[in-house]
Amino acid sequence: MSELEHLLVTEEDLDDKEQIIDQLMHEYSDDILHLVYTYVKNRVVAEDLTQEIFIKCYEKLDQFTRRSAIKTWAYRIACNHCKDYLRSWHYRKITLNEKILDYFPSKSVHVEEEIIAKNEEESLTQAVMNLPVKYREAVFLHYYEELPLAEISKVTSVNINTVKTRLKRAKELLKDMLIKEG
Q: What's the whole-model pTM score?
């Protein structure tokens, strides 16, 4: 039995939350960080999420029912927190920005062409991010997630013809925005 499990033998032991969380962090922080990294594939984000996970563990320690090991309980909190993060708009918005910017020309292209292409990609990314949410959502789901129109209709709970109209209108708005910039 680990030192942490000794701390959790009785209900009264839950009163010493700080000591339990300190021990939990000491024993499992690296394991949880690695688990989180497998979800987000970004070291800095994984470190931030790991901190948030330990805060959640602290806040929910009184809900620990001892039906499993505390490591299992902490892992479950970590998995759920990561899934929530991956579903968040903040994550999807950042991922869309990075995904669009990943489409740079290969290294064999001349430097001038690379610079022009990079500026065009940045302009497109900025233009997409400046669209109203309903159009940005349609563009993201169709072009980034590559969902068919029927699936987008289900996800957004709007009629398929409305989805088509939003995509058409989004293209028009993007065209106008990019023409004004150029």
A: 0.49
Cα(98)–Cα(42) distance, rounded to whole angstroms? 12
For 3-51, the pLDDT digits (tens) are 555 555 455 555 688 888 999 999 999 989 988 888 787 888 899 999 9
Beta carbons within 10 angstroms of residue 88's beta carbon = 11
**The two three-digit tokens of residue 114, written as one number:** 């690379």
Q: How far apart are CA 87 and CA 30, in angstroms?
A: 24
Q: Which tens digit of pLDDT belongs to each residue from 154-178? A: 777 789 999 999 999 999 998 888 7
Cβ proximity of 52 and 81 under 8 Å: yes
Pick from 181, 171, 90: nearest CA to 135: 171
Handedness of CA 13, 17, 18, 20 (dihedral sign): positive
For the chain, list the domains and their CATH numbers.
3-87 (1.10.1740.10), 90-181 (1.10.10.10)
